[in-house]
Predict the structure.
Amino acid sequence: MMRSVRGGYIPKGEGGFHIPSINRRIISFIMIAILILILLGTSFYQIETYELGIIKRFGRYERTTTPGLHWRIPFGIETLDKVVTEQVFKEEFGFQTVRSGIESEFANSKNPEESRILTGDLSIAVVEWVIHYKKADPVKYLFNVRNVEGTIRDVSESVMRLVVGDGSIDEVITKNRQEIALQVKEQMQAILDEYETGIKIMNVELTDVNPPEPVRPSFNEVNTARQEMQKMENEAWEAYNKVIPKAEGDAEKAIQEAEGYKLNRINRARGDAERFLAVWKEYNLTKDVTRRRLYLETLQEILPKVNKKFIVDDQQKGWLPIMRLQDIEGGKK
């Protein structure tokens, strides 16, 4: 005998189970739907605009896909890795950004020793810096190096210690921060290219460089003294620039005047000598005429300066009647 159940019959006393045909169709439909969903889910994929897709077939690199909707062989035959290539990543050394924004919050690094670097003059500098980079080549990024981020940190710390170790504490803290950042960037890029990591270093920034906390007050006092010294040097140079150029100008002016006076005296002396020689030559040719001309020229030069003149005969014997002594005594001439 058989007893009735909803949707079918179960043989009585046999302990078996009979699935009705309608249930088998539903189960088959569900399994086919699940298979289709799995097929669609493992076949089609979407690549965003800021990333690239790396397709691996049985674990080996097959191709690179660009942003958009793509198809791949399903059921795990081809697998997908998405690599963000347009975003700039960063690694921080010596500190950690807790919350970024207009007023960012920072915390001490988990490994503070990474920021303590020995300088060339055997001093200790606490250097905090940031590395900005992009994953420029996703294939190299995925397949050539196991831990790229760890490699970036190790290379950055090694290069920073090398570059900072070439300078003094003053150069690192106050003078050559931009040069140090540029050297670190160039040397890091060369090493990462040699490792074929697919990483492009965008920027290296020294965010803070200070002496260790125990000696920071003394170091600040030294910097203050140096600033005062620099200020005094600038004031001295300012005074120098005010006084020295004026003194040099006055000296140059005096020299030029002396040179002019020298040339004038030399030219006048040469003119007088040439004039004397010319007169002497004329005198040798006609002595009487020249002597008379010189006599007349001398009188012509002297007589206009005399206030009172007496013209007398050369035969005159007595001078007193002519020259009145009271006029001479009164100062009249």
Confidence is low (pLDDT under 50) at residues 1-10, 329-333. The chain has eight helices and 13 strands.
